[in-house]
Amino acid sequence: MSFSFEYSETGLGTGPVFMSGMPGPGLDTATETLIAENGLGGIILFARNIEDPIQVATLCRDLQRVAMKHQGMPLFIGVDQEGGRVARLREPFTVFPGNTAMGDDPDPAARATEFGKTTAMEMRLVGLNMDMAPVLDVPRGIPERYLDGRTFGNDPEMVSWIGRIVIKTLQDGGIISVAKHFPGLGMAALDPHKDLLSIKAEKAEIESVDLLPFQGAIEEGVMGIMTSHAVYSSLDSINPGTLSAEILGGLLRNRLHFNGLIITDDMEMGAIQKERGGKEGVFSAFEAGADILLICEDQDLVLESMGVLRSRVREEEWVRKRLRESAGRILDLKSKVLLPFHEISLAAVRDYFSRGSESQILSGAQT
What is 15-349's CATH number? Predict the structure, then answer.
């Protein structure tokens, strides 16, 4: 099935490029309005949205019912499920020790395969379809605290190898993998959640160390890549990666030939808000080449940013062209991965988390 994209004055045409958080564990009126009236393209879930498997499955079911009724197309519903300390799905979901433990394991390939297969099955079972993983950053020495435990190791070849296994197993299991944080946060000395950071590495070092795992991910067919909010002075002396046409367009699209979705890290992070925050900063990321604009909490900012994009689309042909490109990539991926759409089976979720067999689940998870 193929879909075409056209901008409409109602604003529905701008919605697909936005991915939003939501306030609680159930479908609320504001989120329903974003989906039904503004054409929101995706939802990201956090701990505040997750209580237990049945609740997650019910929430995902309710979100998709609204999307299918009003858009005729499923939402991306994503989560950060890296393992270790960054894992939104906790017990009774399968708990993994994280990327550093995976890299240190005597058999990292087996651990990566186990993580990818099990995580994909459990996510898909409850209606999730996008994992913001794996982290492909290559640390130099001791990583910044916010990356502690989240990296596979300091050998870029090994990071690439393990990352490719995780990507393949997630995507073979029906989950969109989003590799992060391009072009690499391995030299980060600050937490981008709080501050804008500058990475001083020379271009040659970035290419030989930081980019190597992302090149492997692209070769593996990774469907999404998340941007970094750091400034890379040897690549673009002014703009952080998320807002840099040189990094997103020139490097990621043109040099590395990535044709999947470019997804921003959270546009509410301090690294962006302190320098170029608010709705204009969100538009700058779109202008630079991002396909999905991620706003993890503030739905007012989502609506304001949609308004800015809508106004610019009406006024400027290049913005319409960019929107057609991004929305086209989004709809193509949704039609490939999320269609035909099958509603979640709560009975299958109950069976699995009551120790039902994997074979029973795989045969009955989507009915």
Answer: 3.20.20.300
